[in-house]
From TrEMBL:
Transmembrane segments: none annotated. This is SIMPL domain-containing protein. Keywords: Signal. It comes from the Bacteria. InterPro entries: 26kDa_periplasmic_antigen (IPR052022), SIMPL/DUF541 (IPR007497). Residues 1-19 form the signal peptide. Pfam families: SIMPL.
Length: 241
């Protein structure tokens, strides 16, 4: 069944409601005269934002030099990100960590210096600027873009709509079964969102871009976002008159 939700006209690609299972209780007397039905609700939307995880990492003979170059790169990246989003809401940075750097040389690990690194998570709300942003990032000395996560800014609202679709689906199934069994459906006795749906809030593109601290410049890269499916399942129990 396809249903369009008026409250989310710009986001819903298609909606499906499918009955998952139906069974009648045959246990003790207190469980008799009831019908338990499952419902499923699905909403498919296109993502409207993407989260990038950006790494800056440098290894130097002296720790102070590794920290200094890492901080300088992070400062450059921050200036770029602030032109694409809100500094307080869209950018999250980790603290700089510094450790001894060992590399496998010959047949053993040898100390080669000190490594400093920092991670930045950035949420881009305008996917049309994705290529422009990545072009500017590739022009810096970041070590990698470790993750590209597409998601939707209204994920919580969409999941709540999926819950309603799942309930409508369960009610419709219970009504049909009661009619086929020639009984009258009573009031709702039990309702549970068991959390067994996908509850998707996004997906990772699976891409990792390693730049090895070299500014490549040139064009940014393009990734076509896929449809996100939000799915919820519920269990309902109705009395039978």
């Amino acid at each position: 069944m396809v249903k369009h939700i008026k409250s989310l006209p710009l986001f819903i690609m298609s909606i499906f409601a499918v009955a998952t299972f139906v069974n009648c209780s045959n246990g003790s007397s207190e469980n008799q005269n009831r019908i338990r039905v499952g419902g499923e609700g699905k909403i498919r939307v296109m993502p409207d934002q993407v989260t990038l995880t950006i790494n800056a990492s440098f290894s130097k003979p002296k720790m102070v030099d590794a920290v200094r170059e890492t901080q300088a790169t992070v400062d450059t990246v921050m200036r770029i990100l602030e032109s694409f989003g809100n500094k307080d809401q869209d950018i999250k940075t980790s603290s700089i960590s510094a450790n001894k750097d060992y590399q496998y040389i010959g047949s053993t690990y040898k100390f080669v210096g000190f490594e400093a690194q920092q991670t930045i998570d950035f949420v881009l709300h305008d996917l049309n600027k994705f290529t422009e942003l990545t072009a500017k990032l590739l022009d810096t000395k970041i070590s990698s873009i470790a993750q590209i996560q597409f998601n939707h800014s209204k994920a919580d609202s969409i999941l709540r709509e999926a819950d309603l679709i799942a309930y409508d689906d369960a009610l419709k199934s219970a009504t049909k079964i009661a009619k086929r069994a020639d009984v009258e459906l009573g009031k709702l006795l039990f309702l549970s969102n068991d959390g067994s749906g996908s509850d998707a809030t996004g997906y990772s593109s699976g891409e990792r871009i390693d730049t090895y601290n070299k500014g490549f410049g040139g064009q940014g890269f393009k990734i076509a976002p896929e449809v996100i499916e939000f799915k919820r399942t519920i269990t309902t129990e109705f009395g039978i008159k």
